[in-house]
């Protein structure tokens, strides 16, 4: 990733008028998750539709509801933090990664192998976009990121490199957000279950990981946090 990325490019290609690009929507890409979508059951609500356990939103799912053909554990060289306040998660903070990338930072993640078209539909749901959404994946690869919806919580598509010949993308904010906010118990629990599922980490390791993150470390003591993780 770029340490000092250039000015964001927000021009887009109409994916629904160019037949060549329409074909490319079937190309496979990795979608990298680091928050509640670490838990496969929750993530699949973005694919198939439905209401995840512990959340308030019912998702419409993707037009193409095919289950991802693969998923793997993953690490993102950026810092995890919690900000904003989501009605979906008891008005608590939700997960973001910072826009500065480097080997000194490591966020636990998981990648799902989806199509470009599915990733567009996932991004539409993540940004609560009702109308047509266009994303230029080539620009994201070229610049390291692509802001497809300004001033949206997750309107920044970030390119993370290649794995098994497929490009890896994730979603975060276009800025590093302040203030940091306390995530809800349900949100922490969902992330913890996702980490256990994808990485098979024990409760103590997850405690050390989440307990150091902005939004958590000043709002939960170790005992309270461990109680949530071990529920």
How would you portray this structure in words?
Helices cover 28% and strands 23% of the residues. With 231 residues, it is an alpha+beta fold. A hairpin with a 5-residue loop joins strand 3 and strand 4. The radius of gyration is 17 Å and the shape is globular. The N and C termini lie far apart (37 Å).
N-to-C CA distance? 37 Å
CATH architecture verdict? Roll
> How many strand units?
8
Low-confidence stretches: 1-23
* Coarse structural class: alpha+beta
Overall mean confidence score, pLDDT:
90
Order of helices and strands: HEHEEEEHHEEEHHH
What fraction strand?
Answer: 15-25%
Overall geometry = globular
Helix content range of the residues, please? 25-40%
Question: Any idea how many domains?
Answer: 1
The CATH superfamily is identified as Gamma-glutamyl cyclotransferase-like
What is the CATH topology descriptor? Hypothetical upf0131 protein ytfp
Q: Regarding CATH, which class?
A: Alpha Beta
- Rg from alpha-carbon coordinates: 17 Å
Biggest sheet, strands in spatial order? 2-5-1-8-7-6
How are the SSEs ordered, and which strands pair?
Blueprint: H1 19-24, E1 28-33, H2 40-48, E2 71-76, E3 80-86, E4 92-97, E5 107-115, H3 116-126, H4 137-143, E6 145-147, E7 156-163, E8 166-172, H5 185-199, H6 203-210, H7 222-229
Parallel strand pairs: 1-8
Antiparallel strand pairs: 1-5, 2-5, 3-4, 6-7, 7-8
Helix pairs in contact: 6-7
């Amino acid at each position: 990733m770029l340490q000092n990325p250039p000015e964001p490019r927000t021009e887009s290609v109409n994916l629904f008028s160019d037949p060549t690009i329409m074909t490319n929507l079937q190309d496979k890409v990795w979608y990298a998750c680091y928050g509640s979508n670490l838990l496969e059951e929750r993530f699949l609500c973005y694919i198939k539709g439905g209401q995840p356990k512990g959340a308030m939103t019912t998702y419409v799912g993707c037009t193409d509801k095919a289950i991802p053909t693969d998923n793997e554990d993953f690490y993102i060289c950026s810092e995890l933090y919690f900000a904003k306040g989501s009605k979906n998660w008891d008005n608590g903070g939700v997960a973001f990664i910072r826009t500065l990338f480097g080997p000194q930072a490591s966020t636990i993640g998981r990648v799902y192998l989806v199509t470009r078209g599915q990733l567009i539909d996932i991004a539409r749901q993540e940004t609560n976009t009702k109308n047509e959404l266009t994303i230029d994946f080539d620009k994201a690869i070229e610049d390291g990121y692509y802001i497809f919806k300004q001033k949206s919580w997750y309107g920044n598509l970030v390119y993370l490199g290649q794995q098994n010949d497929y490009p890896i993308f994730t979603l975060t904010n276009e800025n590093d957000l302040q203030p940091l906010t306390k995530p809800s118990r349900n949100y922490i629990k969902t992330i913890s279950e996702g980490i256990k599922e994808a990485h098979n980490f024990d409760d103590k390791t997850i405690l050390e990981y989440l307990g150091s993150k902005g939004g958590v470390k000043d709002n939960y003591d170790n005992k309270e946090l461990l109680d949530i993780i071990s529920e």
